[in-house]
């Protein structure tokens, strides 16, 4: 029988929950010995045997075998909460509050006050006492019951804290219930007997389909009066069953044979915890029993990646993003844990890209707001985006002493210089540092950071530019228009060299679709002319006519919307889009 305890009849190893256990041949053999009485009439011997066994084990007078832990929890609260207005106090993370469809409010007509433990692990008497609602003010529903959970998320609640809370409830005449679905694990891990744990509670719900391994069932223990009333409510809830002896025999066999194996289950959970920490994951809850709560953010892979790789080994886990819960039970073997660990180490040693997302935020702060909202006047005071912006300058490959994979990449490109490994850095010091933004070797094709990012949704044909953008003569005519508007025909001779040998050439005003920052030079020339015109017109401002003002406004509008200025904006938008692409890749 010892060898069959670790037999997994399923073709896969299920780490999603300890409810995933399947009946074994030995359990089926025990079920064949069942009685065939009617439990609604309290005539099934196998059910009564199970109830007497568990009641004695827990030190209570009676027990009631039910179909689920949700039912035993709701029956206990319905018995305790019988005189509205009333309220129940629960842990905000507890099963009765989150996963029982609001049953306390529905069945028991009671308000529910959830509490988050101040230590983030378990409720203390200070947490409870400060939130008790006593029957002294008619505006509030007095606390009639307190519900604890042990274990909760795999964490054991110290029995010393249970004793302190019990003293408080007795002082105020409050009922104390325990959701002990996994109390079996706490008893094995601490060495404290079930009888000692349960002696501090009026009612205790014990799950039989989790670590115990029964196919179905949960049992409620309490006093004779409490269980008699709960049996009545069970029928009211539709929970009466007939020949339940088959399930009772399976549960009794699991208590006697599977419960002692939980020590090995805890050992395997600790084993997995150590490996998770070694590969860079974070453990978000204490691993006291059979659960490992993990965060893979710093490990370089996601839970979705882990799920895919584990499925290839016949292993199932639950989770998404970077959060996962790994639950072990008696049908998880050492071999399954070893395969799990191999997958973890394989993912850890797989080169992957890691990009600092804060890089994008810094770039957005430096970018002119007018790119997104041209009516936003704050754009006038925003510093323009330059080629030295951190969106370009704060991306660096790993140095040779940081990653050997980069050395392999450098050997492949023999014509690359040492200074090409690092792009120009920004002069702004409030952005993320070089070391915070790394591009590691990836299995994906290398990203050319010098190539502008073009979304796939954009059309392939280039957008046509205005005629003045391609022809320097048009730019010269624009300058003459400025001179004529301000009456500076003589002063234009000082800038006649613009129309001569040093006129804007196609090399300055680019004719290609890949925009550059050289267009700013043409824009600077026009701005210098406008500044000179404004300087000469300053003494004559008082006598300017309305028509002159209209001309000035028209010229200023044209200067603000000239092709060079628009080209600058398009280049800036393209850089931000490229940064968004890096964000999505991260």
Automatic annotation (TrEMBL):
<dbReference type="InterPro" id="IPR015422">
    <property type="entry name" value="PyrdxlP-dep_Trfase_small"/>
</dbReference>
<dbReference type="InterPro" id="IPR015424">
    <property type="entry name" value="PyrdxlP-dep_Trfase"/>
</dbReference>
<keyword id="KW-0663">Pyridoxal phosphate</keyword>
<dbReference type="InterPro" id="IPR023603">
    <property type="entry name" value="Low_specificity_L-TA-like"/>
</dbReference>
<dbReference type="InterPro" id="IPR015421">
    <property type="entry name" value="PyrdxlP-dep_Trfase_major"/>
</dbReference>
<comment type="similarity">
    <text>Belongs to the threonine aldolase family.</text>
</comment>
<feature type="region of interest" description="Disordered">
    <location>
        <begin position="397"/>
        <end position="470"/>
    </location>
</feature>
<dbReference type="InterPro" id="IPR001597">
    <property type="entry name" value="ArAA_b-elim_lyase/Thr_aldolase"/>
</dbReference>
<protein>
    <submittedName>
        <fullName>Threonine aldolase</fullName>
    </submittedName>
</protein>
<feature type="compositionally biased region" description="Polar residues">
    <location>
        <begin position="397"/>
        <end position="406"/>
    </location>
</feature>
<feature type="domain" description="Aromatic amino acid beta-eliminating lyase/threonine aldolase">
    <location>
        <begin position="14"/>
        <end position="297"/>
    </location>
</feature>
<dbReference type="Pfam" id="PF01212">
    <property type="entry name" value="Beta_elim_lyase"/>
</dbReference>
């Amino acid at each position: 029988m010892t060898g069959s305890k670790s037999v997994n009849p399923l073709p896969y190893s299920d780490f999603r929950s300890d409810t995933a256990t399947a009946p074994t041949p030995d359990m089926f053999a025990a079920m064949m010995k069942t009685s065939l009485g009617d439990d609604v009439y309290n005539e099934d011997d196998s059910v009564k045997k199970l109830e007497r066994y568990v009641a004695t084990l827990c030190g209570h007078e009676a027990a009631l075998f039910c179909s689920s832990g949700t039912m035993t929890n709701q029956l206990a609260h319905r018995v305790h909460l019988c005189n509205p207005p009333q309220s129940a106090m629960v842990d905000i993370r507890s099963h009765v509050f989150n996963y029982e469809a609001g049953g306390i409010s529905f069945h028991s007509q009671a308000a529910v006050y959830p509490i988050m433990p101040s230590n983030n692990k378990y409720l203390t008497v200070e947490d409870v006492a400060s939130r008790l609602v006593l029957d002294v003010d008619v505006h509030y529903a007095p606390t009639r019951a307190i519900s604890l959970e042990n274990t909760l998320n795999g964490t054991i609640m110290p029995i010393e804290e249970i004793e302190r809370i019990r003293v408080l409830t007795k002082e105020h005449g409050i009922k104390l219930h325990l959701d002990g679905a996994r109390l079996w694990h706490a008893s094995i891990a601490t060495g404290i007997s079930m009888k000692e744990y349960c002696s501090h509670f009026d009612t205790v719900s014990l799950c039989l389909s989790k670590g115990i391994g029964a196919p179905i069932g949960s049992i409620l223990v309490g006093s004779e009066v409490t269980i008699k009333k709960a049996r009545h409510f069970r029928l009211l809830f539709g929970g009466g069953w007939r020949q339940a002896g088959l399930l009772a025999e399976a549960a009794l066999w699991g208590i006697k044979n599977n419960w002692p194996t939980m020590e090995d289950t805890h050992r395997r959970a600790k084993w997995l915890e150590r490996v998770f920490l070694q590969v860079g994951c974070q453990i978000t809850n204490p691993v006291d029993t059979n659960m490992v709560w993990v965060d893979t953010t710093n490990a370089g892979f996601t839970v979705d990646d882990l799920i895919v790789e584990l499925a290839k080994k016949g292993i199932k886990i639950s989770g998404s993003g970077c959060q996962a819960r790994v639950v072990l039970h008696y049908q998880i073997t050492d071999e399954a844990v070893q395969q799990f660990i191999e997958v973890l180490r394989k993912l850890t040693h797989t080169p992957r890209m890691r990009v600092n997302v804060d890089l994008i935020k810094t770039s957005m702060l430096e970018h002119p707001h007018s790119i997104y909202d041209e009516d936003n006047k704050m754009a006038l005071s925003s510093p323009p985006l330059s080629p030295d912006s951190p969106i370009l300058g704060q991306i660096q490959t790993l140095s040779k002493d940081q990653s050997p994979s980069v050395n392999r990449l450098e050997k492949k490109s023999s014509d690359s210089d040492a200074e090409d490994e690092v792009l120009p850095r920004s002069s702004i010091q409030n952005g993320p540092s070089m070391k915070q933004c790394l591009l590691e070797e990836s299995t994906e094709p290398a990203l050319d950071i010098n190539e502008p990012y073009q979304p796939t949704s954009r059309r392939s044909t280039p957008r046509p530019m205005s005629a003045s953008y391609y022809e320097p003569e048009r730019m010269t005519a624009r300058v003459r228009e400025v001179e004529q508007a301000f009456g500076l025909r003589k002063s234009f001779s000082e800038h006649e060299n613009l129309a001569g040998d040093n006129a804007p050439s196609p090399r300055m005003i680019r004719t290609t679709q890949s925009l550059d920052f050289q267009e700013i030079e043409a824009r600077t020339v026009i701005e210098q002319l406008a500044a000179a015109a404004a300087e000469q017109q300053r003494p004559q401002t008082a006598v300017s006519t309305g028509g002159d003002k209209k001309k000035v406004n028209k010229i200023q509008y044209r200067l603000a919307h000239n092709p060079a200025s628009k080209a600058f904006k398009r280049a800036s938008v393209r850089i931000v889009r490229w940064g968004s692409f890096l964000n999505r890749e991260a």
